[in-house]
Design brief:
The complex is a heterodimer of chains A (115) and B (113). Chain A has strands at 9-12, 18-23, 35-40, 47-54, 57-60, 68-73, 78-83, 92-98, 105-106, 110-114. With 115 residues, chain A is an all-beta fold. In chain A, strands 1, 3, 4, 5, 8, 9 and 10 form a seven-stranded mixed beta sheet that branches. Chain A starts with 8 loop residues before the first strand and ends with a strand. By secondary structure, chain B is mostly beta strands. Chain B has no helices and eleven strands. In chain B, strands 2, 4, 5, 6, 9, 10 and 11 form a seven-stranded mixed beta sheet that branches. Chain B has a four-stranded antiparallel beta sheet with strand order 1-3-8-7, with no helix packed on it. The chains are: A mainly beta (115), B mainly beta (113). Chains A and B meet through β4 and β9 of A and β5 and β10 of B.
């Protein structure tokens, strides 16, 4: 079972925004970790999108549009990937990841459908 | 251009062994930690193993500890994963990854009789 909880599916219409969440267990403080986000389309390897630690410590993957952004909701112990101006090509699986001291830990992934 | 090319996958019987390789180019391989990540058919991502740039630090997922061995040859710009005592549940596409940001295309390992 993944330690990080992601909704199995999400949907939105073209031009709208999609907010994908990644909830950490209560014993892991989201404020202490970089949250990494990956996009994966069928038959392709995961593509690194970005990481988010704070507004002053974040990074965008090479060639990743600025309409992909990260944030955190500390009250919900959750990392967030916001995709604005949805396009049909954004339809994919999205995975979050954290890197505690000795392992990468992935969420179970969210399948985003662009209606 | 950064490139990671995995090889060595294939069909192997339960209990068998396989050695995966990952050829790196386009960056200073010896400066970066590397990881193996796998993805079972239709499933999510599972981290397998980590090796530091100098090979001084190595970690494994509990699911492969004692059966898999990660190694690297910085002179050959190559990463390896020796997989022994393979099980059906090890069937997956295996990706090598440079830090968190760059992944190869993957190589499929199928464990079946």
């Amino acid at each position: 079972q993944p330690v990080l909880t992601q909704p199995p599916s999400s949907s939105a219409s073209p031009g709208e925004s999609a907010r994908l969440t990644c909830t950490l267990p209560s014993d892991i403080n989201v404020g202490s970790y970089n949250i990494y986000w990956y996009q994966q389309k069928p038959g392709s390897p995961p593509r690194y999108l970005l990481y988010y630690y704070s507004d002053s410590d974040k990074g965008q993957g090479s060639g990743v549009p600025s309409r992909f952004s990260g944030s955190k909701d500390a009250s919900a112990n959750t990392g967030i990937l916001l995709i604005s101006g949805l396009q049909s090509e954004d339809e994919a699986d999205y995975y979050c990841m954290i890197w505690p001291s000795n392992a990468w830990v992935f969420g179970g992934g969210t399948k985003l459908t662009v209606l | 251009e950064v490139q990671l090319v995995e090889s060595g996958g294939g069909l192997v019987q339960p209990g068998g062994s396989l050695r995966l390789s990952c050829a790196a180019s386009g960056f200073t391989f010896s400066s970066y930690s590397m990881n193996w990540v796998r993805q079972a058919p239709g499933k999510g991502l599972e981290w397998v193993s980590y090796i530091s740039s100098s090979s001084s630090t190595i970690y494994y997922a509990d699911s492969v500890k004692g059966r898999f061995t990660i190694s690297r040859d910085n002179a050959k710009n190559s990463l390896y994963l020796q997989m022994n005592s393979l099980r059906a549940e090890d069937t997956a596409v295996y990706y090598c990854a440079k830090s968190t940001s760059t992944w190869g295309q993957g190589t499929l390992v199928t464990v079946s009789s």
